[in-house]
């Protein structure tokens, strides 16, 4: 408010008690969120401190904290990378189909179905992975081990249960598909109608219109969505815990039955039976996961907001 | 252009380039789809050579169909149209392929879960059950109690934060909170569980497992979802309404309580319901905070509690002996869980439809 020569407004002078209380409560709630996030970091560090400072020989496996975390970290990144590589192209295709190819009346229903996919609990995806996907993949693994074994990813020996890193990656891909496609759909839908219509009016085919008017506009949105999906895949617990047969160390072999576990799945499987320093070690691995997902999410938000700043659509 | 091409349309098929302008040739309307189906059929034949399998049929068929459509369109309609057809085919195929897991998932859960969907499943706990029978009575109650507690914790904090961000927030604090809420959305659920465990373990000693710990963990996951959706909805309330209220001398807090919130109540309800749907299926944080028991425990402040997802997980991974009964219970629990989540989604849609503010239109 600018101060003018008019008499000072009375409402400015007396701020009612109710107002002060309400504003205080609302601000307090906001600050509480800051505290919670700080609390997550502080309490995780506090509980993992004994493991961080302990003698390496006392930890599980006796190889020290770095030796314990390294295979888990590798497994986490490998599974998430497979998921991302499989899910991103499919998600972009789904988003394009729903936005520009599907019959208009079907498109809304399809968008709703995809949103429902995102709401299905992760434990159910794990069930599906082990009951339907893993057995279905076994013949392929056998074939790949026989014919493609010169590629390190398919070195074999093939798993007979299908509980492999590749199956896990595919389950994760199905889980993050709706997230990426929802965000892609949103940015594709926002592509300026004038540009699209101009392209079509100049005689562009539908694909040329998409390539020239939609994709350049939606590119960073797709990248941001993929990063969010990556964050979800990195932190996914139960689906991995159920599907992956985890018993090995670092390996790029995707189709054998000895795979590195992931951080989250390892915590879920080991935590209920652990005590003492083992609990602290698991919390330390959780801290590592927290830091990684934090970095990925911040990067994703940065990309998405950068688009918002420069797009001129808002 | 028509003056240069005196040939009748019927003759264009046999004639080559006539005159300086080539008549535009087009495929009949359903030709592309037909070629694609032929590709699929050839794919089925190819896979039949090496012992029929559905995956191979789809694999060969999609590739053959796509290549066929591209080549024929390119021959008849030219390169640009062919590329367009190619992308259409690829995008549509990708969409259909992506739908396969969903259909397969629903089928698998229904197929395996319907066997034990009986009254005993809802009316008995696992206390003293070995082998056949038993149910998820304790787990369903646990889920209801913990989710209710989570909602009670999260909704006031989330709603007030959203009100702060929309109505009061300025400057650096607002920016920081917005950013951190975004970051909080991405916290892995297992880390939220570890946080709750670390918090309680520090004060109550390690080995502690309580229902309220699970509620705290889930709140960490639910609060950012509530803030996000509530913020979006509150922003939609037109400023004219607020200004009209101020003009009548109504204080700001009463404006918020009496004007802003009632106007946006439908959106708030939808957002909260979807947030509940998001946390009700969470398993990982409860695995490390609430533990697992076979009996019914209704007190979230003492002793372990079981929830439906955790129950389902343990019945699948540790089914006992003979294993088939535990596995059946696990699938039925998964089915109940999906139905619950779907129901919450439908309720959310209904809320936004029924309680939407009555506009003049």
Topology diagram in text:
The complex is a heterodimer of chains A (314) and B (361).
Chain A lengths: L9 H4 L3 H37 L10 H38 L2 H16 L2 H26 L17 H26 L2 H9 L4 H30 L2 H6 L19 H8 L6 H35 L3
Chain B lengths: L30 H19 L4 H24 L1 H35 L5 H5 L13 H32 L2 H15 L3 H16 L6 H26 L2 H9 L4 H12 L1 H16 L3 H6 L18 H10 L5 H32 L7
Helix pairs in contact in B: 1-2, 2-3, 3-14, 5-8, 5-11, 5-13, 6-8, 7-8, 8-11, 9-10, 11-14, 13-14
Please tell me about this protein's structure:
The complex is a heterodimer of chains A (314) and B (361). Chain A is an all-alpha fold. Chain A has eleven helices and no strands. Chain A has one domain: MetI-like (MetI-like fold, Orthogonal Bundle), CATH 1.10.3720. In chain A, α7 runs antiparallel to α8 and α10 runs antiparallel to α11. The radius of gyration of chain A is 25 Å and the shape is flat. About 2% of the residues of chain A have low confidence. The radius of gyration of chain B is 30 Å and the shape is flat. The two termini of chain B are 51 Å apart. In chain B, 45% of the residues are buried. The N terminus of chain B is likely disordered. At the A-B interface, α2, α3, α4, α5 and α8 of A face α3, α5, α6, α7 and α8 of B.
List keywords for this structure.
heterodimer; A: 314 residues; mainly alpha; MetI-like fold; 11 helices; 75% helix; 0% strand; B: 361 residues
In short:
The complex is a heterodimer of chains A (314) and B (361). Chain A has eleven helices and no strands.
CATH homologous superfamily identity of chain A: MetI-like
Using the coordinates shown, work out and report the CATH topology of the largest domain in chain B.
MetI-like fold
Distance between the termini of chain B: 51 Å
Q: State the helicity of chain B in percent bands.
A: over 70%
Shape of chain A: flat
Strand-and-helix sequence of chain A, N→C?
A: HHHHHHHHHHH
Radius of gyration of chain B: 30 Å
The overall average pLDDT of chain A, rounded, is: 84
Evaluate the radius of gyration of chain A.
25 Å
Structural class of chain B: mainly alpha
Mean pLDDT of chain B: 84
Number of domains of chain B: 2
Helix content of chain A: over 70%
Instruction: Specify the CATH homologous superfamily of the largest domain in chain B.
Output: MetI-like
Architecture of the largest domain in chain B in CATH? Orthogonal Bundle
Question: How many strand elements of chain A?
Answer: 0
Strand composition percent of chain A: under 5%
- How many helices of chain A does DSSP assign? 11
Number of helices of chain B: 14
CATH class of the largest domain in chain B reads Mainly Alpha
